[in-house]
Amino acid sequence: MDGGMPELVGALSICWNVISFHPCxxxxxxxxxxxxRKATAVWEGGLKTGKGSFKxxxxxxxxxxxxxxxxxxxxxxNPEELLAAAEAACFxxxxxxxxxxxxxxxxxxxxxxxxxxxAVPGGFGITTMKINVQATVPKIDKVKFDQIAQxxxxxxxxxxxxxxxxxxxxxxxxx
Length: 175
Description:
Blueprint lengths: L4 H8 L2 E3 L4 E3 L14 E6 L6 E6 L5 E5 H5 L7 H23 L6 E13 L2 E14 L5 H14 L1 H6 L4 E8 L1
Parallel strand pairs: 7-8
Antiparallel strand pairs: 1-2, 3-4, 4-5, 6-7
Helix pairs in contact: 3-4
C-alpha cells in the first residue's frame, strides 16, 4: 500500500451529522475535502443508430448503451439505471447511518430505486425516482423508522441533487 490507509481511516472517523451530511470537526482533525468521483462516456454515431460506453474511474462499473437500451427495452445499460443505482446505494448507506445515530442500527437495509425518463416538452426528462426501502431494525417502532426514512430522503446527497427537478417518492417498510 502507499501509506494512504491511516489517512482513509482518519477521514472515516470524522464525526458526521448523518441526516444533513455536514461534517463535525474534532479538535485533532485536519481540513480535508471529500473526493470527487469521475466517469467517462463515449458515444459514436447518430442518436438512433449510434452506440456508447461508459466506465467509472474505479473500474468497478462499465457498460455499453444505445438508443434501444435507453428509450426502449433493448440490451445494455443506460444513464437512468446508473442514477437509480446511485440513489439506491446512497439511500441505503444514509438510512443505515441515520438509524445508527438514533441508537437503533439496522441489521439490513435493502433499497430499490426506479428512475423514469419520459418525453417532456422540449425532449426527454427524468421525471420520477421511486425509492422502495425495506429494513430490518431491532428495537425501533414504525413511526420513528418512517421519520428517519423521510429525513434520509431529504438529506441523502443523491436525493438532494435530484430535489426540485425530479419527483422523489418513498415507500419504506420495516421488517
